[in-house]
Amino acid sequence: MAMATTAAAPSLGCSRDVSFGTAMRGQAVPLELSKCRVGSQLRIACHSSTVRACASAGTTTLKQTRATPGEKQNVDRQTCRLALPSKGRMAEGTLSLLKDCSLPVRKLNPRQYIADIPGLKDLEVWFQRESDVVRKLRSGDVDMGIVGYDVVAEFGEDDPDLILIHDALQFGECHLGVAVPTYGIFESINTLSQLAAMPQWTSERPLRIVTGFTYLGSKFLREKGLHHVELSTADGALEAGPAMGTADAILDLVSSGTTLRENNLKELEGGKVISSQGVFVASKKALMNRPGVLESAHELLERFEAHLRARGQFSVVANMRGNSADEVAHNLLKMTSLHGLQGPTISPVYSNSTGEARVEYYAIVICVAKPDIFKAVRELRSAGGSGVLVSPLTYIFDEEPVRWRKLLDTLGR
Ligand SMILES: Nc1ncnc2c1ncn2[C@@H]1O[C@H](COP(=O)(O)OP(=O)(O)OP(=O)(O)O)[C@@H](O)[C@H]1O
Ligand SMILES: O=P(O)(O)OC[C@H]1O[C@H](OP(=O)(O)OP(=O)(O)O)[C@H](O)[C@@H]1O
Ligand SMILES: [Mg+2]
């Protein structure tokens, strides 16, 4: 297996000092590695599979270390760090969210892993695989991150240092669930309890489940009382496992359900482990101790809240016929979709059709939830409205976001 360089590590200054190029499983270990001794100061960033490859090559006594909670690195770092997914759908979703919040990420070239956000000074942006975003939050190498909740739950391992500042960024929506084949011994199995009760599973022949979520998976299955279970892992295309005969069931992410259907699999009732979407997560220690982190988190949270709130709403302006603002208000408030955020804004429209200033119309401004827009237009017309203008909103800045207050409470502020 070819192993890619992890060139960001030395500049990230985290628990590794150098990186190396490629090595083939079972082949000679690269020269630099064979020179390195356990206990020396040389720390190497590599894929975890590399450590296994080196061990099987038998040329090194290299020890794999994982950043663990409390094992804080980079204590002297002066800058705040935000880690973002380096590839895939979550990278796209994150970059477009930040752009929509007028915080475009500036990356000098596509293969560089460091970037910045011109709108946020004193903040470094680092691109990392999602699992590494969570690991580096836990090790103190980065302060904040945007990733899928599934990754926080899996690699965060319930670490109390990880705080979800925003738990619903409205992209990357999916859930983690158990699925079995639609055919054979599973034909009449539709729930997790039925799966657990199948006589086939014994300690000699456990239920084999393939998943990328071993932490969440084993915890969930234990809690649900499935005892004779063996989890195996794969990096992708897990849905092939049952048909290939390498697994009986899968525990994987589901969004539209197409991949399950196309591979003759069905989800089990009671088999949903978690729902997931993009989240804004931070290290509690960093929020409390590193100067500037809380301020950056506040700025990001305010923008996310204002943008996401606005994204679901239209601004509607219309002229309403009426004898008084009170009468117009009364007519509007009778309609279910015309209440606005706090209530409609109503202002007199002065015309001089008769040579003197007269009020025949009132202009109203309301916010309407996007799914309700056509109902709102119908209701406006029936209440005497005309000239209805509908525009998208960029931000809705309301009072202090509830999530900000909640964060301060969590931090004891
Ligand atoms: N089908 C999906 N629809 C929506 N979001 C998804 C879907 N699958 C995964 N996600 C979300 O996107 C995250 C990253 O998944 P993605 O498939 O982009 O990366 P990966 O599986 O780690 O890598 P790759 O598939 O490129 O090898 C997941 O952790 C989850 O939060
Ligand atoms: O319910 P659906 O909309 O079909 O989406 C679910 C699929 O999406 C993800 O896979 P991905 O596309 O990332 O491929 P991978 O298995 O190679 O990771 C996930 O692992 C499922 O296989
Ligand atoms: Mg994937």
From TrEMBL:
Q: What job does the chain carry out?
A: Catalyzes the condensation of ATP and 5-phosphoribose 1-diphosphate to form N'-(5'-phosphoribosyl)-ATP (PR-ATP).
Q: InterPro entries in the record, alphabetically? A: ATP_PRibTrfase_cat, ATP_PRibTrfase_CS, ATP_PRibTrfase_HisG, HisG_C, N-reg_PII-like_a/b, N-reg_PII/ATP_PRibTrfase_C
- Lineage, opening ranks: Eukaryota, Viridiplantae, Streptophyta, Embryophyta, Marchantiophyta
What cofactors does this protein use? Mg(2+)
Q: What is its main location?
A: plastid
Q: Name it.
A: ATP phosphoribosyltransferase
What residue stretches are annotated with the Histidine biosynthesis HisG C-terminal domain? Answer: 310-394
Question: Which Gene Ontology molecular-function terms are recorded?
Answer: ATP phosphoribosyltransferase activity; magnesium ion binding
